[in-house]
Amino acid sequence: MTSVDLSRTVLRAVRRAVDDGELRVEPPERVVVTTPGGGGWGDYATNVALQLARPAGQPALRVAEILRPRLIGLDGIDDVLVTGPGFLNIRLRDTVSVDLVHDILRSGTRYGFVAAPHGPSVPPAPLPLHSPGDVRSLVVMDVVARLLRAQGVVVRTRCLDSSVAPSFADQWGVRVDGYGAAGSDTPDLGGLSSPPCSLQPRPCSGDPLFLGIDAGRWALLHPAPHDAVRLTGDHLVQRESNPLFRVRYAHARARAVLRNGSELGLAPRPGATGVADAALLAVLADHPRVLRRAAETRAPDRLTRHLVAVADAALPFLVTVLPRGDEKPSAAHRARLALAEAAGAVLAGGLSLLGIDAPDHL
């Protein structure tokens, strides 16, 4: 269950309380759910009771107690605890997390992709993506095209600057289908067409090639398209202060625990991990939504920020995966290995969409 799914579930509980006459209030258009803060109980929390208390003319704690029984048992919710002035802390059933990990392992690095339709159908109209010839525009266009294709969209890319040598795009791993203004080289698509989408991020001042292709692409993609690019050696340092390093290190650590688990005779098997994993499960569940929104908004920086969030949730979890000391291997360790493998798959898939290598060793 994603945070979006849970938000809809909480909103449904609010509407049921209104229909039953327990709450006299106009239901909100949306409900915000977040992961609990440090030491918080459950997998998610929401302040909807505090939000509704004043318009409902009731104390927030009373509103929370009205909503609690209407949430328990809905869509994979195991239990709900009212905390503080009226926060609803929600715990999901283990089967929800097990199903999520199964889904990720089944899809691998393509988790969150939309499958292309099967069978005879009218071919979709290709979406033309156009960009200037500067390196940032070309790399952003390339990643937007990858994101759109991952959502089942047919894309055709074009660099509007005919003076750009194809070898320049190839050097950066950019696929360009055509150069110059669209004209005679545009293929006959049977009358099907879509209006072109022009991508014009703020150009960077300087040549990012000194960073190498992987760090260079990250430097061009991590800022929002309207923000300036920072070309410094900070993108190369192997420290926690470097977001790219954290993402790639988390992937390498996930691969390492799988190798070490195999040496201990442990195979990944989704189940209850027995350790704090709510933050990691939440960001993994959110991955398909992030991919969809990054494609819809033509914003690769949404994906870079999400991968940093996955890495930051994965790194503290990964140190708990394998048995320590005299601890005997158990089903919980196999479940942790499965979740580690799922995290590694999401990180590898996301880096691949950015055109960045995901090393097994770092």
From TrEMBL:
Q: What is its EC number?
A: 6.1.1.19
Q: Provide this UniProt record's keywords sorted from A to Z.
A: ATP-binding, Ligase, Nucleotide-binding
Q: Which reaction does it catalyse?
A: tRNA(Arg) + L-arginine + ATP = L-arginyl-tRNA(Arg) + AMP + diphosphate
User: What are the Arginyl tRNA synthetase N-terminal domain coordinates in residue numbering?
Assistant: 4-92
* Record domain DALR anticodon binding: where: 247-362
InterPro entries the record matches: Arg-tRNA-ligase, Arg-tRNA-synth_N, Arg-tRNA-synth_N_sf, DALR_anticod-bd, tRNAsynth_Ia_anticodon-bd
Q: What Gene3D superfamilies would the database entry show?
A: Arginyl tRNA synthetase N-terminal domain, Isoleucyl-tRNA Synthetase, Domain 1
Taxonomically, the superkingdom here is Bacteria
- The name under which this protein is listed is arginine--tRNA ligase
For the protein in the UniProt heading, the enzyme class is ligase
